[in-house]
TrEMBL record:
Residue spans crossing the bilayer: 132-152, 164-182, 218-237, 244-264, 284-308, 328-348, 360-380
Highest taxon above the source species: Eukaryota
GO CC terms in record: plasma membrane
Record InterPro entries: GPCR_2 (IPR050332), GPCR_2-like_7TM (IPR017981), GPCR_2_extracell_dom_sf (IPR036445), GPCR_2_extracellular_dom (IPR001879), GPCR_2_PACAP_1_rcpt (IPR002285), GPCR_2_secretin-like (IPR000832), GPCR_2_secretin-like_CS (IPR017983)
Signal sequence segment: 1-19
Species this chain originates from: Seriola lalandi dorsalis
UniProt xrefs under PANTHER family: PDF RECEPTOR-LIKE PROTEIN-RELATED (PTHR45620), PITUITARY ADENYLATE CYCLASE-ACTIVATING POLYPEPTIDE TYPE I RECEPTOR (PTHR45620:SF12)
Record keywords: Cell membrane, G-protein coupled receptor, Glycoprotein, Membrane, Receptor, Signal, Transducer, Transmembrane, Transmembrane helix
Designated name of the protein: ADCYAP receptor type I
Length: 445
């Protein structure tokens, strides 16, 4: 995948939460069409005063110029998506009109429009690194979440409402990771920008699935917060009855939102693969529920912290003050990835605020959220560890007796009787021996 397509991919992923940005190669395509229209309407090619005609260099449209004239233009619109508004307005690129035609652009687009003061790293490498980071993050999350799902499904003693909610959250993270890989593979597998203007069912289906998975993930993060808050507030909590409502909210609400968004796109903004969001009103059908879930979860998070402070400082709770605050800090850190509170950092910030940092935070670090949730709420869970240890001990004991009996009683081993059956036979035999000994020791009356 080229650097331009990598940049485009990162923009679309960050666009899933908060942007109205147009993907980069689509910006180039539109600028090219505008340039071609201007060329067709105003062709000064036959005017001898203009030594250099209209020129499209794949980034900027250069108007005709006279011999010896220096033409200066602003940085292309494409780069406005990677820079702050102040830095973008300062960027200028120039070309000389010589007797041999247009000179090379100076300074280079990369130097004028992407390099920032104090940052010597190549921007292409920056975006390649971010893409590699989120690819590793989603892959790691996918493997760890799948393993956690197998563990929670395998052990019947772990089946409870709390773990069922965790399992649905794990599934939403898994679907989100899968949707990212599918979108990358389908929309940006080639080096062209055809997806900007074609109307294919495949493109639209991918975007609908992608937005559904993202919305479902946010809603299950919200449900985790709502469940824990309700558990702390209500004394008598009918978990099973509420669980059905959680299913409806977690999977049903995103279905309604994405369906409404798809219908509106089809009738009022049917452009390309639906990966651009020029119509702000339609985009709010997706963006609004996401921001609402983040905001409500943040309020629930604050409420839960207040409740934890009150409970930990209660005179009924033993321990000194330092241990109380240590437990509070640990509980707070555990709740942050479960509630997705880190999304509040950039959720309500302006679109042009810290774009590079936003990419690293939301895509790079956010891609590891599923892995962190799986580790904290499955692999490090005391209940899960106890159940795994119990199963391991049971398997080890059965295996030991099976091997031991195989060596001591070859006839039993070859008769097809398994270790568990052999163990029961030995237990019955020893019971009968003990009963016979007691009867022998009992004096006759």
């Amino acid at each position: 995948m080229s650097a331009a397509n990598i940049i485009l991919t990162l923009l679309l992923l960050s666009n899933s939460v908060s942007s109205q940005q147009v993907p980069s190669n689509c910006v180039i395509k539109r600028e090219q069409e505008k340039c071609m229209e201007m060329m067709a309407s105003d062709d000064p090619g036959n005017d001898p005063e203009f030594g250099c005609p209209w020129f499209w260099d794949n980034l900027t449209c250069w108007q005709p110029a006279r011999m010896g004239e220096v033409v200066e233009v602003n940085c292309p619109e494409l780069f406005s998506q990677f820079m702050s508004e102040e830095d973008f307005e300062l960027g200028k690129v120039s070309r000389n009109c010589t007797e041999f035609g247009w000179s090379e652009a100076f300074p280079h687009y990369i130097d004028a429009c992407l390099y920032e003061e104090g940052n010597s790293s190549h921007p292409d490498m920056y975006y390649v690194s971010v893409k590699a980071l989120y690819t590793v993050g989603y892959s790691t999350s996918l493997v760890s979440l799948t393993t956690a799902m197998v563990i929670l499904c395998r052990f019947r003693k772990l089946h409870c409402t709390r773990n069922f909610i965790h399992m649905n959250l794990f599934v939403s993270f898994i679907l989100r990771a899968i949707s990212v890989f599918i979108k990358d593979g389908v929309l940006y597998a080639t080096e062209d920008s055809e997806h900007c203007f074609i109307h294919t069912l495949e493109c639209r289906a991918v975007m609908i699935f992608f937005h559904y998975c993202v919305l479902s993930n946010y809603f299950w993060l919200f449900i985790e917060g709502l469940y824990l808050f309700t558990l702390l507030v209500e004394t008598f909590f009918p978990e099973k009855r509420y669980f059905y409502w959680y299913i409806i909210i977690g999977w049903g609400t995103p279905t309604v939102c994405v369906t409404i968004w798809a219908v509106l796109r089809l009738h009022f903004d049917d452009i390309g693969c639906w990966d651009m969001n020029d119509n702000a009103a339609i985009w709010w059908v997706i963006k609004g529920p996401v921001l609402a879930s983040i905001m409500i979860n943040f309020v629930l998070f604050i409420g839960i912290i207040v409740i934890l402070v009150q409970k930990l400082q209660s005179p009924d709770i033993g321990g000194n003050e330092s241990s109380i605050y240590l437990r509070l800090a640990r509980s707070t850190l555990l709740l942050i990835p479960l509630f997705g509170i880190h999304y509040t950092v950039f959720a309500f910030s302006p679109e042009n605020f810290s774009k590079r940092e936003r990419l690293v935070f939301e895509l790079g670090l956010g891609s590891f959220q599923g892995f962190v949730v799986a580790v904290l709420y499955c692999f490090l869970n005391g209940e899960v560890q106890s159940e795994i240890k119990r199963k391991w001990r049971s398997w080890t004991v059965n295996r030991y007796f099976a091997v031991d009996l195989k060596h001591r009683h070859p006839s039993l081993a070859s008769s097809g009787v398994n270790g568990g059956t052999q163990l029961s036979i030995l237990s019955k035999s020893s019971s009968q021996i003990r009963m016979s000994s007691l009867q022998a020791e009992t004096p006759a009356t």
